[in-house]
Amino acid sequence: xxxxxxxxxxxxxxxxxxxxxxxxxxxxxxxxxxxxxxxxxxxxxxxxxxxxxxxxxxxxxxxxxxxxxxxxxxxxxxxxxxxxxxxxxxxxxxxxxxxxxxxxxxxxxxxxxxxxxxxxxxxxxxxxxxxxxxxxxxxxxxxxxxxxxxxxxxxxxxxxxxxxxxxxxxxxxxxxxxxxxxxxxxxxxxxxxxxxxxxxxxxxxxxxxxxxxxxxxxxxxxxxxxxxxxxxxxxxxxxxxxxxxxxxxxxxxxxxxxxxxxxxxxxxxxxxxxxxxxxxxxxxxxxxxxxxxxxxxxxxxxxxxxxxxxxxxxxxxxxxxxxxxxxxxxxxxxxxxxxxxxxxxxxxxxxx
Length: 352
Prior knowledge:
This protein is α/β, with parallel strands linked by helices. Helix content is 28%, strand content 22%.
């Protein structure tokens, strides 16, 4: 749960990432894929914000945009108080040490022609002027931290298992002592037996080094294990943001309800009691989202207003935010503001 007494480490306001669609000989823009469309959130120091949603909803694009691996279309991104949303890639270089990324596919994200020592040491080569001895000591220290044998320092990525390769990627991300790490589905390409080991490692490293995570994943069970708060995305927008236990116990948005109803329960007696919510239809194209609520074409509780007016994101209880017309009439801590009124983002990073 966000704590108003602490300043957020990461503040994202109105983030948009639109990819142009061009056509014709002159390659004129005829539209845009709205991969991320007006997303706002905060992440507090030492917190893990989980981000979930189905494929194509914009989770990974959000993570990459927050680190400015893309030049964003619009919005504000502040990390440790520094605005990075409008900086050039050259100006961003000096800020890279404080924000790093662990990629989804460890096979594709590691250079097959470089040894483990060279991969982990590459950030040190780029951002420090350390000598060979100091650099090697740091590489060994990082290998120890992620549970890799020092004797493997001169081996190549193809000689390791998937879990070991992901540990190499995590060690590389830690090389410059970052404050913030985006974990872009770091367990998706791993065997189930290895996933828990990697997540436990991330938790241990967070405790040891005081790290802050944006943890992106399809695995709702794993997000429940590691996240402090959870943001649910659908078609480029955050539809619900809430503390972990509150969201899993009582999801408020119809899409969150459908998503969580699909999570298998290990207890057969409880699994039989779960009512599965089967969504009909296909996800609309992000290049032409529906009028009103993005979810109105598939929502089992759709109302006429949903097809006309985009819902405001409201705080319906302490720390719980939802963008749904079903909750327009619930207690509104903003003082009864009506949908459509322009409002400023609050501490949790969504408009009220």
